[in-house]
Amino acid sequence: MAQKRQVRVGSQWMYARDAEKALGEALRVMKEEEGHGHHESFVTKYLFSQDHKWIGVQYGFTALCFLLFGFFLMIMMRLQLGWPNQPFAVIKWFFHGTGTMLPEQYNQLGAMHGTIMVFLAIVPLAVGAFGNYVVPLQIGAPDMAFPKLNMASYWCYLPGGIIMLLSIFLLGQQGGAAQSGWTSYPPLSVIASQGQTWWLVGMIFLITSSLLGSVNFIVTIIQLRAKGMTWDRLPFFVWAQFVTSFLLLLAFPPLEAAGVLQLMDRVAGTSFFLPSGLVVSGEVLKNAGGGNPLLWQHLFWFLAHPEVYVLILPAMGIVAEVIANNTRKSLWGYRSMVGATVFLGFMSFVVWAHHMFMTGMGTVISAFFQTTTMIISIPSVIILSALFITLWGASIRFTTPMLFALAFLPMFGIGGLTGLPLGLATTDIHLHDTYYVIGHFHYVVAPGTIFAMFAGIYYWFPKVTGRKLNDTLGRIHFWGSFVCINGIFMPMFYQGLAGVSRRLFDGGLQYAHAKAAAAATNPFMSQAAIGLFIFQLPFIYNFFKSIWWGERVGANPWQATTLEWAAAASPPIGHGNFAVPPVVRRGPYEYSIPGAATDFLTQIDEDGGPALPAPAVAPPHAPVVA
Amino acid sequence: MTMKKFLTLLCAAVLVLAVACGKGKEAESKEEGEDDQAPQTASTSTNTSGAPAAAPAAAPAAVSADAATLAGVVKFEGAAPKMPVIQMGADPYCQSQHQTPVTDEEVVVGPAGELANVFVYIKNPPAGNYPAPAAPLTLDQKGCRYYPHVSALQIGQKLAIKNDDATLHNVHAMPAVNSQFNEGQPVQGMVAEKTLDKPEETPFKIKCDVHGWMKSYMAVMPHPFYAVSQANGQFTIPNLPPGTYTVVAWHEKYGQQEQSITVGPKESKQVAFTFKG
């Protein structure tokens, strides 16, 4: 009787006996191909892979390591801020000093924490990892449009990261990493110690990596969508990545140019950013002169403001996927959300100078950038409102990814709304360069974007590994992180309003007006930071344990509608992703359709119901049987 | 190979890398240890009158029985410029350390016209190998001022920079030949030890960027034949082998002067410099 049962091979159902024959034939063909030089070596398959999925995994793993390292730098900063000038063993170990942090060491940590978190952790995780892994699967593409370019993108990113890391270990009196903040404002950055040169070289690698990646994403999304995957059937995540890629493509080149110019100022004696008669420590600097430090600020923020949306748009994309799936509802206002995203992309290029109200640009320019800044908040509100309304009346599944996605909404809300006073020149005068700013952008990026990244990791982990992350550990990770992260960042608003400046190595104790506010809150914030670190341990354990011993799941454990779940195995097959090129028949979020057999219709389902039931256990390499 | 197998392998590789890095760190700490460790021995204390004698320690190997001593006095001619009172109000700690107003140390002239803080050295030293003194030269930051105001050390001699104040100082050394450094000292009692390894006979500036009035000058000498004039304008260069030398006197405001002198065996030679205002 056993031979009478049907199994699924590729897209076909067949009797077990026939399947066995087909499998045997497939194995023979595969062996034959291997014998004819189609076998991939370890190096080409895992190191210099051209498979978007493996490149995604490479990006993800590397970015998570950097995320942890950036977090570790933050812990050292918080130790110093919470208990200024106290010696700590970890600081002694890291800097080989007495254990008491020196101001210049704090500056190094500040600059490297910002750089690593933005350029080495979150962008590579959001775009390099999630974008690479999920976008081709969601649009039904066999791979990225330019696999070699994709590989080159990762192999520009990794050296860039290594250069940044090595700069920390530079020795000598001019040693140490860059100290001029992640913004690297000249003239300070041009006259800074040699770590800054390494920073610039590292940045040039990282920018190149992003440029290569963005071109690839744009072409892939335009050219390689599966049959039937029209623009209005694209999952919101793909739209978010699409707009993000344009931002990367158009915003990064100015910074690459600016980076090269600053490098020349440092090593070739040019003065692009150094004015004539610059006095440093009471001495007139012997430089060519004639440069303008403000030029750097314009070029930097012309990148860095769109960069904010590079950080936030993929996060919104992930949250939208997770919310649609766990509310079992179609996204409310899908088209408005897409429209808002595209508008956000355009507007992000005309708001950059709201970072520069204090430079004395003049009231006309200030008024222009205030206006655009207020306008850009509208599409963000549209997207966030649409996500909130999606929750309305839903029977929500409180899965771990959903918890993170739900937390994203108010956290990003706080981050966004606290940005409005900074976007108005009048209030910015008081708040500029205070801890209020730090609180604002960390709410956007840390409990905002990073929580969305965690939602994505918990959500797509089964797709990558075929196993699920443990739910209990996930909940401990979520609740602990949620409480602690607010403990760190919420008091920053109070500190900022009290006038505590950012980038002070002792948190402001040297300033009479800031002393009380800093002393009252900093120890608690540092304790919260240590708590946050402790609550990452369940995640790290869960992550590695689940890769090998996690609960096995089928191709579509979340009962999701999009192609990566509906048409591909978990993990998807090596090359080509899909056993049969999928044909898309409907929109991305058809949940709870009245009259349908199940509460969801995947994008490949026929009108009457599922074309094929999802396989219970995905074959690791499902052979194609014609 | 499945992805899982590879991830196992990847983790192993990361572990190996971590171990390798660990070794690198040890090596680093050995190198750095010399730089960062606070000197355990108490260095020469400086007097607070503003003009301690930075007399070089004797270099026994180079001393001959015929050695002469060069001594002298530096005078200032004309009306001594009135030095401005330093406004220390920006840092209440600094202000609290002084009961009476403190004046700038750019030109320190005694009652009979003696000029302090003049760096005197032999420009063409006798050939020989002069080992560096074992004791470090201490540059002290006390009451938000540097002690000594002008000093010199020999190549290879350690420089110990000490913060005796309960406030943040940063030591920003701006040599033209040696490597610049800029190091913060946030805690009272902190000592930073530095090595300057290239000769730099014209003193360079060391300053604190937190307290703009704090300035000190330092020379790096390849030999021990140098001295700094004290509050009474006097300086002494001992153990000088007989010969003809060019003696240079350098002042931070009035520039430098040279004199040629000849010293005989065991002679006690007097030389005088006069700077005009």
Provide structural commentary:
The complex is a heterodimer of chains A (about 625) and B (about 280). Helices cover about 65% and strands about 5% of the residues of chain A. Chain A is mainly alpha-helical. The radius of gyration of chain A is 26 Å and the shape is globular. Chain B contains 2 helices and 16 strands. Chain B has helices at about 5-35, 90-95, and strands spanning about 70-75, 120, 135-140, 145, 150-155, 160-165, 170-175, 180-185, 190-195, 200-205, 215-220, 225-230, 235-240, 245-250, 255-265, 270-275. In chain B, the strands form 4 sheets. In chain B, strands 5-11-10-7-8 form a 5-stranded mixed β-sheet, with no helix packed on it. Chain B has a 4-stranded antiparallel β-sheet with strand order 12-2-14-15, with no helix packed on it. A 4-stranded mixed β-sheet of chain B has the order 4-3-6-9. The N and C termini of chain B lie far apart (about 85 Å).
Instruction: Give the proportion of residues in helices of chain A.
Output: 55-70%
| Structural class by secondary-structure content of chain B | mainly beta
- Compute the number of helices of chain A: 20
What is the residue-averaged pLDDT of chain A?
91
Choose one word for the global shape of chain A. Answer: globular
The main sheet of chain B comes to:
5 strands, mixed
Q: How far is the first residue's CA from the last residue's CA of chain A?
A: 25 Å
Count of separate DSSP helical elements of chain B:
2
Structural class of chain A: mainly alpha
Strand order of the largest sheet of chain A: 1-2
Mean pLDDT across all residues of chain B, rounded? Answer: 82
Write the layout of secondary structure elements.
The complex is a heterodimer of chains A (626) and B (277).
Chain A: E1 6-9, E2 12-15, H1 16-38, H2 42-47, H3 52-82, H4 89-95, H5 103-139, H6 147-167, H7 188-191, H8 195-223, H9 236-267, E3 279-280, E4 283-284, H10 293-327, H11 334-347, H12 363-391, H13 400-417, H14 420-423, H15 425-431, H16 435-465, E5 467-468, H17 471-497, H18 512-534, H19 537-549, E6 551-552, H20 563-566, E7 590-591, E8 600-601
Antiparallel strand pairs in A: 1-2, 3-4, 5-6, 7-8
Chain B: H1 3-36, E1 68-77, H2 92-96, E2 119-122, E3 137-142, E4 145-147, E5 150-154, E6 158-163, E7 169-174, E8 181-185, E9 191-195, E10 200-207, E11 215-221, E12 226-228, E13 234-240, E14 243-251, E15 255-263, E16 268-276
Parallel strand pairs in B: 1-16, 3-6, 5-11
Antiparallel strand pairs in B: 1-13, 2-12, 2-14, 3-4, 6-9, 7-8, 7-10, 10-11, 14-15
